[in-house]
Amino acid sequence: MSIKRIIGCLLVRRGIVVQSLGFERYLPVGRPEISARFFDEWGVDETMLLDIEASRQGRLIDLGLVGRVSNASFAPVAVGGGIRGTDDIRAVLEAGADKICVNRLAADDLDMISEASRLFGAQCIIASVDVRKTDGGDYKVFTDGGGNDLDVHPAQYAKRLADAGAGEILLTSIDRDGTRQGYDLDLIEQVAPEVEIPVIVCGGAGHPDHMKAALALESVSAVAAANFLHHSEHSISVLKSWLRNEDANVRGEHHALYRNFTFSDDARVLKLSDADLSEQVFEFVEDDLA
């Protein structure tokens, strides 16, 4: 069984990382390069930098920002925001990105996805699929931050993207975004098994149990989260230790390990016992001077 990845998302609006709530409300978090450095130090497998305004504003993500975030991270960095063609892809990669993530471009020009895959390699191309459940209970794909209904089922759309040459699918539930209610497993099970390329799932993480449930699905290659990872120290280190304690197949190489710790019901690290703490007190030895 392949090792599954934990991906940290940096959603950028007006130059700063934000917390997204249903693609409609945004709360400030901080500078992207600082968040990227924390993610990297805490053991993230990949970082995804997404400028959520760039496409609507008709501009490319700030290449200086791409460079700063890439320099702050030893882990691979995927970048999205306003990418309109192969020239933009080349510019983003030359600025320091390892992969690119496209949403509007994938909807507008499948041939461009094929061309990008040929030029840069399929492993470099992540196609973003944002999904909302309609009043009738059907899943539909949306672009432009949930503002444009493509009137297509996400499984059908994901197949098109994979056939065009995308190397990965980023499957996001708009309805679950910022809710902390867990990933939409029904959506995932309808889409992920239908494509033969890796699927990253996003939207709704609020507890390690949610990630455990998604990672248990054979067709899921990675889980991504934004809000959930920003608001506690060592969030990714703690998450990975919790998941490994639950036998999830995730990497455990990071500088802060919590393997021998116990966790509360909300997955917080519990204080060591007084006996354990006392054993960690330094034992001072008198200088042996002749």
Please provide a written account of the structure.
- There is one protein chain.
- With 290 residues, the chain is an alpha/beta fold.
- It has a single domain, classed as TIM Barrel (Alpha-Beta Barrel), CATH 3.20.20.
- It has eleven helices and twelve strands.
- An eight-stranded parallel barrel has the order 1-4-5-6-7-10-11-12, surrounded by seven helices.
- Strand 10 (168-173), helix 7 (185-191) and strand 11 form a beta-alpha-beta unit.
Keywords, please?
about 290 residues; alpha/beta; globular
Summarize the structure.
By secondary structure, this protein is of the alpha/beta class.
Helices and strands, with pairings:
Layout: E1 5-13, E2 16-21, E3 25-30, H1 32-41, E4 46-51, H2 63-71, E5 77-80, H3 86-94, E6 99-102, H4 104-108, H5 110-120, E7 125-133, E8 139-143, E9 148-149, H6 154-164, E10 168-173, H7 185-191, E11 199-202, H8 208-215, E12 222-225, H9 227-230, H10 235-245, H11 274-279
Parallel strand pairs: 1-4, 1-12, 4-5, 5-6, 6-7, 7-10, 10-11, 11-12
Antiparallel strand pairs: 1-2, 2-3, 7-8, 8-9
